[in-house]
Design brief:
With 350 residues, the chain is mainly beta. 7% of the residues lie in helices and 59% in strands. The two termini are 42 Å apart.
């Protein structure tokens, strides 16, 4: 019951962060299609935007690439990072947005001057979006008719918000964890031997590698080390049966839910291979040899970006792991090393 209560409390905390993050996403007033004064069309989803059409040959390579990211509210105004490429030098710049009905008034501080332009909302997008009876006029330097050669790809490189262009990036991290093993038992000479592993409070630590296949999906490979004492009880006699060591190698598929640039909740499932070793202690119990094992796990967590490339991570998972053991060189038995794991750590994305 205590383990279930702990799992529920942590799950509610993670769910609260996720709900808050998703609620922030729904407040975005800019979702949809917008047209620039030169006829380019940008689709905004969440807090980023991509070109879906541009009549400018020099910008053709940026269709389906991130050119707007990190749309956020600050006080009574909105800010966004936009990709600008005047005179052949591409860079990300912070732009102030003002929403006036179906028009975004943009204000960019460029070379000491404030440059204003606008986007117009499109209710539908035709099969030939480049044709417009009223294309308007724009002084947006990012959509210049001669932007020149671009020095960086806005869809894959970033100097700003980490989560909006995190697709295709790797992260390396380290973590410590609290491991709460479930009690179990195995039969020995027609009697039950109860196994009670101690909780490993910060007794688990390791490293992990993450790859974002998509901004909403990532894979994580982790290697940890766990050490704990195991108490055995047989015929009413209890004692330290030995020391259990595990080296779990875990592969986890994670689904991410947030478009919030700083708070990134996720759920994950995966498989693991466990290198197991048991060092028997004392004379009260016969030797126990344990085999390596496979296991499964499921859980969730949240990553909070404290800097552009550094995230603080908290996660929880439940592990199902059945181990085969040889008792006193006589019989083979199976017992569970299921565990509830709560971990925290840091991760660096590059």
């Amino acid at each position: 019951m205590k383990r279930a209560a702990r799992f529920l409390i942590v799950a509610l905390i993670v769910g609260g962060f996720a709900g808050k993050s998703l609620a922030q996403d729904k407040e975005n007033l800019f979702d949809g299609f917008w047209k620039t004064g030169r006829g380019s069309i940008i689709k905004i989803d969440g807090d980023q935007g991509i070109f879906v059409y541009t009549p400018l040959q020099s910008w053709k390579g940026y269709v389906d690439k991130v050119v707007i990211r990190d749309i956020r509210q600050q006080g009574n105004k909105w800010l966004a990072n936009e990709y600008i490429a005047p005179k052949g030098k591409g860079f990300w710049a912070e732009v102030e947005w003002e929403l006036q009905g179906d028009r975004i008034i943009r204000r960019l501080l460029f070379q000491g001057k404030t440059v204003s332009s606008y986007y117009e909302r499109l209710s539908t997008v035709s099969s030939n979006p480049g044709h417009s009876s009223n294309p308007g006029h724009s002084s947006n330097p990012g959509h210049s008719s001669n932007p020149g050669e671009h020095t960086s790809n806005p869809g894959t490189h970033s100097s700003g918000n980490p989560t909006r262009d995190i697709e295709g990036r790797f992260g390396v991290g380290a973590r410590v964890a609290y491991v709460d093993y479930a009690d179990d038992g195995y039969p020995f000479m027609n009697r039950e031997v109860d196994t009670e592993p101690d909780d490993a409070i910060f007794g688990s630590y390791g490293a992990n590698l993450t790859y974002f296949v998509h901004r909403y999906f990532s894979l994580e490979l982790g290697v940890d080390y766990v050490e704990t004492d195991v108490e055995l009880c047989y015929l009413g006699v209890s004692g330290n049966g030995g020391e259990l060591e595990q080296i779990p190698v875990l592969l986890t598929a994670r689904t991410h839910f947030s478009t919030n640039p700083r708070v990134n909740p996720y759920l994950g499932v995966g498989v693991g291979y466990y290198f197991n070793d048991f060092d028997s202690k004392g004379d009260s119990f016969r030797p126990v040899d344990v085999d390596d094992s496979f296991g499964f796990h499921a859980g969730g967590g949240i990553e909070i970006f404290v800097l552009d490339n550094i995230a603080f991570n908290v996660d929880l998972k439940y592990i199902w792991n059945e181990v085969e053991a040889e008792l006193a060189g006589v019989s083979d038995e199976e017992f569970d090393l299921n565990a509830f794991v709560t971990g925290m750590g840091f991760k660096y994305y590059f």
